[in-house]
From TrEMBL:
The keyword Nucleus applies. It holds the Pfam family TAF2_3rd. The keyword Nucleus applies. This is Transcription initiation factor TFIID subunit 2. It is found in: Nucleus. Residues 570-752 form the Transcription initiation factor TFIID subunit 2 Ig-like domain.
Amino acid sequence: MEEFTVLAQKLELDVDFVTRSLKGKTVITIQPKTQDLNTIRLNARQCIIKKAQIEGFPVSPKYSDPYTRIQMRPSWTVHQHQIARERLEDELKLAPLEPEDALELAMPRGVKIKQAGQTLVPRQPLILGPDAQTNGVVNGDVLDSAVPRIEMVGSYVNLDITLEFEVPSFRDGLHFVGLLDGDDRYPHVYTHNSSLAGTACSIFPCVDKASSRHEWDISIRCPRTLGDAVRKTPAPSAVASASNLPNGVTQSNGDHSMTGTDQSEYIISLTREELATEMLVVCSGDLTDDITDPNDPTHKTVSFRVNNLVAPRHIGFAIGPFEHVNLSEFRESDQDEKLGTNATRVHGFCLPGRAEEIRNTCMPLAAALDFIGIHYGVYPFANHKVCFVDDLAPNIADTASLSICSTRLLVPENILDPLDDVTRELIRGLAAQWIGISVIPREGEDEWIAIGGQHFIADHFGQELWGKNEQRFRNKMAADKIVDTDMNRPSLHELGKHVSQIPAWRDFMKLKAPLVLHILHQRLVKASGRNGVNRIYARLFQNAKTEALLDGAISTQNFLKICEKWVYGSGCPLFYITQRFNKKKLVVELTIRQSQKDSIVEQKLEPGNFHRRVKEDQLDVGGSETQPIFTGPMTIRIHEADGTPYEHIVEIKDQVTKVEIPYNTKYKRLKRSRRQKERAAAATGIDTAGDNQDDVLLYCLGDTLQSEEEVKDWRLTDWSKEDEEKMAQESYEWIRVDKDFEWIAKVMFNQPHYMYVSQLQQDNDVVAQVEAMQYLYFQAQNHPHPLISAICVRTLMDRRYFHGIRVMAADILAMNGREELDYIGLYHLEKAYQEFFCLNDSLMTRSNDFSDRVSYLIQCAIPRAMARVRDNNGKVPMRVKQFFVDKLKFNDNSNNEYSDCYYLSILMSCLGESLITKSQSGAPRYDFSFEEDEAAIAEAEFQRKAINEIERYRRIDEWIPSYQNIHSVTSMDCMQLLMQSKTIPRKGVDFMQSTRSGNADSIRVKAFDGLAQLGFMANPTVMKYIVQSFAFETSPYMRKQIWTALWLGLGHASLTKPQTQASIPEQNGGLIVEQDQSTTEQRQAELKRKETVPGALGALKIELGQDEGLADATLQALRSPSIGAEDFVELLDLCDVLYDPSEGKLVVTLQYPRYWRVEHLGGGKVRFSKTEKIRTTKMKPYAPPTKSQPAKRQGSPELKRRATEDHVKQPHPTIRITQKQKEASPAPAVVPPQPVQPVQPVQPPAPSVKLKLKLGKKE
């Protein structure tokens, strides 16, 4: 039980840019819950407590910085990583969500906890109403929350805790940019918040728990201008008289003048205009005050107020020379008039010179805020702010009323490609203000509700912004990806326990959780007709606002149980469906068999999933139990011959479900010959309206290229007579399974191919079209046919199709571009490109015009598809290669208002891929022929020219940078592909040079990724460089990317057998006999290495773990003072992979014992003093003399011999011993060895003095 509750907290922060430090004062108001409160425990990291008071009474805080106790000791090696991990978990409690209490304040004697009276508090949280624990939905309606039950609780008088603190340097919490040598970016600072605990208490003392939510008053003191922020020495203090004002400041305006300033006064070089730039403070809450410091005009204090209940981890701020952009101006005028004063203002902040980019990027935010406010409840705060900063590791850090965004998300007005994904991410950050900050998950297992809710709300608005087809297409693609990857994975509920420790789990949760909410929404809407998941979240936010939701926390148990199997179980159902038309009964007989075991395939260990598999092995977590049966309704739609769709709902309850669906129409199926005859007649002007009145005319997509001339020119193939006869006998057009998209499942349906074509051409649902295209792709991959190419090219040429369907059609055409089919698919791709983008009757491409977004997507999709065309030797036809070179050489973008950088990068990638020779299985194919014929010479010459063309764009990018250096990144990617296929020699130095600090982040990220993909990290020297780069990198974003590349490289190193010197083959005359030297054990070890995590880790420990240089670099990285707690944990994970922990052994350093000198002072007094003589031999234990054996005198021969031996021996200054770990916890303190002094001979006593000591028991 908690002993107190935090009611409010006041913060006063003073940020120093030059020293990159912070001073502050905080007043925490608490309400005790018990009168026996003797100790108050708070969370604090990396700070120094200067002063502490409780109700004005000084107290002595008991505090020790946890960061000082998790460092590697000087005597430790990398094999002591397990000890460091145990200490880390004890100090910081990184496994749970809450940190360890680090600051203890004993209650002073002068403070008494007094009773204040009675208060009313909720007894238990109420989420959706009194029946929320059972279902939460009655007849499809979401229940309103009832009046919360309350109880009487005695309250006590509030206590104020005042703390003055200082943070001299930051490892976590705050990040400073632009203040180091060589960093020419604008100086600014911001909080890099996280959904986990530990960030807030690294900045200021607090109760850093998710349940500790209260109001805030924040005051931030900072430099007033950019010049004040980077000045080496503080400006003189200001007083009232004008004579004492700082140089350049007048009483009339109070502004600084940059005249007479010296650049040596500043830590970085800036222009006068930049030095005079005003510093802005962007913080959570509402701005209440902004005043200049009366004692120092170079500083100002900005105050904010957070009236909502917010946890410390959701308090964020940024300070820098930001430009302010009013994003509310993009709100529609009618909407602005309708909302009036109730309209929530949206503010944007960016670094100088990027205002236009933020306008283009954040244009939809105001509309999104209004849309979410209408459908989910009023925005929780008074205004919303977005601030773009450099080096931020995630794309967006979510804080109360403030989204701290990375500048990587800024998109100029002339860039098209990344805009959709960036907009979705910004809207997700906006939705996090409702679910994630205003309402939080109660436990880690409930994290899926917040993540899924954010993406569900963003998708809801995305459907309004991009259209229904776009959203359903994305959902279908996501569902297919989940079906392929959700094998032996933990459930959504289990993912939340370790989602912070395994990044791949968070990505999978972002993929699956919104889809689970989508299918839940579909089922609720079908049941109620109006209320879905959006209504559930709206009621949830209302309960949180009225405090009916205790602590504003939501749990899985209080959510709907209708999606229980999708939350607590893993895997996706696999349906095998067979259909048969019974002419006697006039019914369609369907058999639905559900089988999850058939879809479970053991995941192959690959470099891409190596990190996740290792983390799962370390945490001893595996896949959740696969659900044997998934239940729920499934909508089946039958399109009968009259064109009318008939829907039937089938309840799936058992493993095998058999249903009979009645047939409703008397018409026969519409024949393709009838349709073609009418089109041909329409082309010639003949009226056939009176013929065959019994046939039903259907609207059909993909009906382009129908004239005889077009059919001949495009080399199109039509249906065979056999197919026509089969189609004539069918009684219905096609059958749709799961029409309403209520399942995340894979459906295997034995429907004939011409029914899938009818579904593609006559069903206007984009999901139905995707299913038909997926069937055609499977057929083209296994049974290519010219008819498939004809269907797909008609789909590609029909502008009425959704652009995603047309892109899929281009991919299928590439599958039909085979040598045995006379490259018919390639011919259709070339013909389509010429028709769309070339001059009339010419192969010359027109000037680029990307104003039509759909046309631009098709222009990018066709070259991608052409690059995948291969002949029987695995080579791309020369005409395709020449196509890419010509398009790069003669590209004309002079009349285009949009940039062509992404389009050119696609052409470069296609050209690089076309130079690779692949076999049909996808593995590289090598030609060992030594004949240098003319074709080979020509091909080699073309390869040289093609690589030069790629390099030409890279060199242009060095002088005229493209957006995020996309040309340089693409060029490096092409070189990587050519090296991997051994088309060109591997050169790691090219990538190593690009990893250096000072290059663009995008180039460095690609360079580290290239080193990993090419297998260079199997070299201990390269691995040492990567570890050192990670440890001493200042950018959090780059540290994250380096670590991702490091694990990717470890995956390649562990799964690739190291190259050894090949044995000389045995020669017998002219016959060479090659013998396989590998044994069965070696082959089994190699198989274990490639298929199991323990086998791969064992190989890494042999190949990398025995390198002393890498071990020293890793140990140096662990001792780096700049890495944070999470980075320290990552390095310990690396040690766990490469090094075995020492088995109960620890090397310690102890001092040798020394001899003592005894001096008789007379009068019965004796003085003992330590000598410089070191004893290195073990002394025998003293045995008291017996009556039969008198004690030896001091001058006996035995004592003289022992003393002589001690004088002769030269002792070593230190000794290394081993001690059992169980006996030595905690580790002994390390004492440096003392220098060995020359042994001084003991002076014999004076002859006149005799000392007689009698030892033993007194008789």
